[in-house]
Batch of 4 targets.
Target 1
Amino acid sequence: MKLAILSRNTALYSTQRLVDAARERGHSVRVLDPLRCYLRIAPNAFEMHYKGRVLSGLDAVIPRIGTSVTFYGTAVLRQLEMMDCFTPNPSDAILRSRDKLRAHQMLAAQGLGLPTTVVGDNPDDTDDLMTMLGKAPHVIKLNEGTQGNGVILAESASASRSVIEAFRGLYANFLVQEFIGEAKGADLRCFVVGGKVVAAMRRKAKKGEFRSNLHRGGTAAAVSLTKAETETAIRAAKVMGLNVAGVDLLRSRRGPLVLEVNSSPGLEGIEGATGLDVAGAIVDYVAYRHARRKRAQANSPVNKRVKPA
Ligand SMILES: Nc1ncnc2c1ncn2[C@@H]1O[C@H](COP(=O)(O)OP(=O)(O)O)[C@@H](O)[C@H]1O
Ligand SMILES: [Mg+2]
């Protein structure tokens, strides 16, 4: 298979691991910086160039699109999809999951557990909005934040109101959630590939912190998931339309609650904590889907030679 990894940085652990896993399996692989891909869009004539050369003949791409380049990165990925290149995570699915509000609406619509969430625009509605949510503590988070940035714990109603006013003043999009205290600063990162959980870890926030992100100093260890947790993670990835996903869950009194579904989950933390070859699992899945597509194309009536009558 001719594989590309769409990534801004070749030196990143995750990128490097995917390249190594692909090479070990005998695939041809290259890393493409999405910001160096440029596109020509014309009816039935999509074209892409990379650093001055035509890019064509790719079988599959693994997108690793950082949040700072979501718009351009997903445009490049969409172009590759239109050029018949397979991606486990389609551009639309990435956009869906990056928007936490939209993702929560879609997950809740399918009956998946999540922290109760409220959203409002007008300051005149703040009091009623907080009544809709229930008593503090609340968690207020930026709609498109990552790595724990812009996730704030407001311990009282007045703190909650102040943060909401401050975010509004900055014209930021944000959500307000019930705080799941019984999770005790820990969450579960479930790594889903092709509808299976291939690895899972429990992340624990450092002392004095409620966010368990490894970027915020959290620690991680392998964990075995309950059946309900495994099913929730698989369903959440499916609802988002992602075949490679890092699904974050909180353990609560009412069962697993989905916090977010990551479309470019990091490999370093999960491989380090579990000792599992997650990069290999991703490459194997992409190769399997590519082979299946090739078979389907070969068997399609369009490609079968019609016998003369
Ligand atoms: N409603 C909540 N209740 C308790 N802890 C939460 C809640 N929301 C987030 N957290 C903690 O904060 C961390 C970061 O929140 P998350 O929504 O995943 O944002 P990010 O995209 O920045 O990682 C989570 O991993 C979890 O530990
Ligand atoms: Mg998170």
Target 2
Amino acid sequence: MVGLRLGRGFADRVSEQRATDSRRQTRRKRLLAADIETTPESLDHPVDNAPVRALQHQNLTIEGYSRAAVQSYWRIPELKVGFDLGVQPWSFMTTPTWFVSHTHLDHIAALPVYVARRRMMKMEPPTIYLPAEAVDGVEALLRAFQRLDRGRMPAELIGLKPGDEVELSRELVVKAFATRHTIPSLGYLVWERRKKLKPEYHALTGDQIRDLRLSGVEVSAELRIPKVAYLGDTSPPGLDAFDETYRAQVLILELTFVAPNERASVIHKYGHTHLDDLIARADRFENEVIIASHFSTRLHPDQIQRIVEKRLPESLKGRVKIWL
Ligand SMILES: [Zn+2]
Ligand SMILES: [Zn+2]
């Protein structure tokens, strides 16, 4: 009896155990399913979905990647702005403001992806500046994806014309300037804006300056420091359109073609720049760093590197970064 009871008891305990296990498993499965369904995707975990090169220059980090007809995307985290969205590296999602140079696919294909991801991550809708001619088309594109993906596509699209200025903050102003490509296109210059005491007040004491200010006198003048210029795709007139481009601390330009046998007339007709164009302007660049990018895929990266390094004049050698 005892044995039987024990036996029964053992059998009971085993079956109880099995029931508990299966309940536990069901609960775990349910929990896992709930995790997958409700846990928001994390930005803390790296997702390596696109190549990103980086360069530190003073207090700016320039991150990006760019090859002609492949994909172009750039951002400067410290300024909280990005340029072009050919692809959106996962880490670029936190950048809330973008300037699109033109609507060729290698510069804009990831725009709907980026907008949808920001929404999925419960981030503020982004602000996207782009050539005014492209706004209707991009709006229609987002609407089409809203239907296809069945998710909202919240974004503020703002069209710009050459010469327009955008005040991003008290410290940052962006100017759009004309570039020359095969479709409407813009380059962008980011200024840092500072207030500087006007020279006529330099001899005054702090109290005197304060009194003047309180009496309504504007004692300071605006000082603008060109921080970053981004050209997107352009033939040389885009480089020459706006003098400040040559003075930006960091200039990001396209250098699609470098081989000696490529004809300038054809390259310019298709709205691109050749290494010869850069060399012809060597004396004009006052930039601290010039990032040469958007190289064609016709040549192997090693060939591009060799050609550019061999032909660059001394005055540019240390400053030109070959972005491959
Ligand atoms: Zn391109
Ligand atoms: Zn293009």
Target 3
Amino acid sequence: MYGDWLKQRRAKEIMERARRARARTRARLRAVAIAVTGLALLIVHDAIAQPAPRDTHGGLSPPSGGLTRDEVRRRVERLSDLGRALFFDPALSRSGQMACSSCHDPDHGFGPANDKAIQLGGGDLRQPGQRAVPSLKYLQAVPAFTEHFFESEDDADESVDNGPTGGLTWDGRVDRSRDQAKIPLLSPFEMGNADAAEVVRRLRAGGYGDKIAATLGRSDPPDTDTLFATAVKALEVFQQDYRTFYPYTSKYDALLAGKATLTPQEARGLTLFNDVGKGNCASCHISRRGKDGTPPQFTDYGLIALGVPRNPEIPANRDAGYFDLGLCGPLRTDFANRRGYCGRFRTPTLRNVALRKVFYHNGIFRSLRQAVEFYSERETNPGRWFARNADGSVNAYDDLPPDAKANVNSEPPFNRHVGEAPALTAAEIDDIVAFLGTLTDGYEAPP
Ligand code: HEC
Ligand code: HEC
């Protein structure tokens, strides 16, 4: 009797659990569907809205209303395919040899494949750049640049002004990836086109005129403005493809999903990474999920001055009076008079950082271990990092002019002094480097 009752109750429990699981799955699928179509609609509406005001083709461009979800999805797919083709096509450059992928290599987290601090480009492929090539992965959540960033995260104090935050490039001077794409296309030391018209000539020669017309659903050939706007838009849409640019397939993501365990060394590294009294890395490179459950991005997007050493390998630095000061210029021009902003660069994500061969905005270090050692020893052993003055004293923060040195961050682990022990021992640095290796995409659980 009792056995029967127990069996019935168990069966009921199992059914109830299955029902709840199905409901959860449905809710999750709904959420994903809403997010995906929302994004798709946004993109397409935007794509059409961009060239539309300048459209002189008798209003032939299709209204964004009246599109079914399937049509929207197909259009996004077409734009993304176009963007992928453009991204890998060297025919868009004056040299005919340089594509976006030449600097942003998919096998290196869309960062540089080589260990050069800067890349050479331009029509003759000999014009030096000024900064290290950043990764293009996990840029989808970079907020638009703002001088005053107020956190809405769970335990953060919402009234605290976190200062300059967000924007694309190392100094946050661009807000949208389509505007970003114009920089390399037109830069004399990157893809080297003189103007948009030159890019469009190359687009037409490469057979993209018809492809773009088809993507826009037009029968007549699009004008120069529309071709250029659609090309940079397509590059943007391609870079929003989550399967390629933010797949969240690292071992750390598997750990968060309960599908992997860290080795003892990686686990020690994670603890040191988060520990306020040790690495304190997570205070800027956030390692926990967002309030809404989004996976950790390993950056808070803040623009911070770390005072990394000057890199004599950058040709622009041969001029002793030249300084790349990030937020206050000279590449960025809107804060030229804000000395308090000098030396600040955007905190990069650490996802896929182990695939890099150069580190920091000026590519000063060639090993990840050294990049971490710098945090530990910047203050306790400055002579190891910085050049010397004529009198033999150490010129701390030697890539900043004297009046900008006060901007350098002094929070832990930078709160030590000469003569004190560094924040991290050699073994602890190894642990953190091992942990950083768990942030590389493409982890496959051992069978
Ligand atoms: C010659 C090397 C080179 C080429 C070619 C190149 N880039 Fe870049 N890219 C860079 C460098 C260097 C930066 C950092 C610029 C800065 O901070 O001022 C950068 C930054 C970016 C960023 C901002 C990343 C961030 O972290 O905010 C994006 C997006 C980008 N590039 C996309 C592209 C696209 C799209 C193309 C092709 C149209 C392209 N790049 C071609 C070198 C290159
Ligand atoms: C106060 C904020 C802050 C803290 C704390 C911090 N970082 Fe960073 N991190 C930054 C900023 C800003 C940059 C870029 C600076 C630059 O290039 O000038 C950076 C760059 C890096 C880079 C180079 C990445 C690349 O793509 O070139 C690595 C590696 C790194 N951090 C690891 C760490 C580790 C490990 C810790 C802890 C020991 C840590 N960071 C603590 C803000 C911080």
Target 4
Amino acid sequence: MGFLVTVAEFGFSLLLIVFFGFLSVVVFEAWRRRLSNVSVETVTTLEDPKSLKPIPCPHITEPAEKYLSLIVPAYNEEQRLPAALEETMDYLQDRASRDKSFSFEIVIVDDGSVDGTKRVAFDFVRKHTVDNIRVIPLGKNQGKGEAIRKGMMHSRGQLLLMLDADGATKVTDLEKLENQILAVAREEYSIRNPASKEMDFRIGDVQVSAFGSRAHLEEKALATRKWYRNFLMKGFHLVVLLAAGPGIRDTQCGFKMFTRAAARKLFTNVHLKRWCFDVELVYLCKRFNIPMVEISVKWSEIPGSKVNMLSIPNMLWELALMSVGYRTGLWKIHQACDTERSS
Ligand SMILES: Nc1nc2c(ncn2[C@@H]2O[C@H](COP(=O)(O)OP(=O)(O)O)[C@@H](O)[C@H]2O)c(=O)[nH]1
Ligand SMILES: [Mg+2]
């Protein structure tokens, strides 16, 4: 009898081991597929809403045609987008009228909005022409990170700025980022090409990134916010530190600028599609030795934020994915995007 019980126990344990072994393989396989799922580049078709004619879709691997591109991710921004666009356009037109060498474009990426975002955006295109402002419609919602990636991949600037659709940052602050990038790029260029002349220097060819930052506002925010929000913020900073390492105090600010060469490298590699793609950008800058500067910007909290408590599990999941993806080598780094091809 005792012998039979032992055999039954042994058989049962074996069954459990086989069952859990099988389960682990299934889960690991699903995890592996998710991890190695690099975004596939889709060809985006652009259209002039005035003539309804298709226009050629530029690509980050082609030479720059403008000085500055502003990439605006927009998800259900019918209310907040118009004022932000007006202010941005006023600044850009004013600057272009003062400086004939300054050229720009705004690229709005409509991320599957279900309100009137697309209508608002196309009204602006009709008013300001498709050469100055264009819309990339993504059809279905893919996340802020993916929307920005698509915008970057199809923009024409030597300098590429991502900024939120709610106008939370003063657009004139882009000059702070631009000036820092210019200073760092000139230095990098002269170190790498000691014999070259100033006239050969093209800002878009040197890899530099500038991160707008609200870290200087943190003390005030800590004093005025509820304790659990501060707790969550500190916790998030710790997780970011573990995932991407030190370097940038505010990874999440929606105001960042990249040279074309840096953007080409970063956005052909970035995997995360939602809120933590910024953390991956920091990680990638470090991997590629792309110089990063963090610059304080003016920030106003605009009502209507889409980040909520439900975004937290997604953020943690993305950071876990990133850590495992790069550490196990399942997320590959593509080096082959150093140079542009001629169009
Ligand atoms: N593409 C895309 N953009 C989003 C999504 N959710 C928010 N955004 C955009 O991200 C930017 C910042 O969003 P916001 O809700 O103001 O976030 P907060 O300022 O960090 O609280 C805005 O331009 C939004 O339109 C989304 O699911 N997809
Ligand atoms: Mg906002």
